[in-house]
TrEMBL record:
Keywords: Membrane, Transmembrane, Transmembrane helix. The chain crosses the membrane at residues 61-78, 111-131, 151-174, 186-207, 213-231, 243-263. Coiled coil: none annotated. This is DUF4271 domain-containing protein. It holds the Pfam family DUF4271. It comes from Bacteroides caecimuris. It comes from the Bacteria.
Amino acid sequence: MMGDTLSFRSADTLSLLRQEQASPAKADTDSLQLADLHAVQEVDPGFEGTPISYSPRTDDAIALTLLACFLLSSIALARGKKFLSQQVKDFMLHRERASIFDSSTAADVRYLLVLVLQTCVLSGITFLNYFHDTCPALMNHVSPLLLLGIYVGFCLAYFLLKWLLYMFLGWTFFDKNKTNMWLESYSALIYYVGFALFPFVLFLVYFDLSLTNLVIIGSIILIFTKILMFYKWIKLFFHQLSGLFLLILYFCALEIVPCLLLYQGMIQMNNILLIKF
């Protein structure tokens, strides 16, 4: 009986010794497996998600800009509707009157300046959509908000330089009254182009118009504006048939060439931004 007890105790002791010897080995194995798992996680972090390409439709800055343009247009139409309608009548019927800055209030002039700025902003959004379709890599390298600011600045500089050029040429070759009438007509065209651009930009951004439709509709707006400008030029500066050819040359030099220079300037700026960023 004592022998059996001693044999059982010896067997238990041996099994405990084996478990104690096996436990460190098992712990070492678990440690090695855990280290391999961490190594695998560090080497292979997982699949990277596909980044979503930029779209003006999802840009909050553009949405806020369009909302601000809508509010400003509503305020200008509500408070200066009579003055704006008078500008259209004067443009189409060729009525001579005092200068806009003499006969209008300071509030009316402020509304007109805001509408001119709105035209520049909407033109900038149109160019942003155009270059988004023609040069998608540009949006991945440069902030779209920065691009929008650059395009708006280009449009603002374009209209300002043309205003100064008209003023210089008008006061050099024509009398002051006709020059003022042309500058008023030019201003009226700018802010009414802004009204025409607003629904176009809404469709362009939120209905995802194709590049072909963008170019076609934008060209129609531009050509119609140039036709109205040429009509006003004939009314103001055309007196005899012999001067028609000279008038056409002046029109091409002052209207067509600056548009091409504006477009080329934006393309060169895009190339510089791609190189810098």
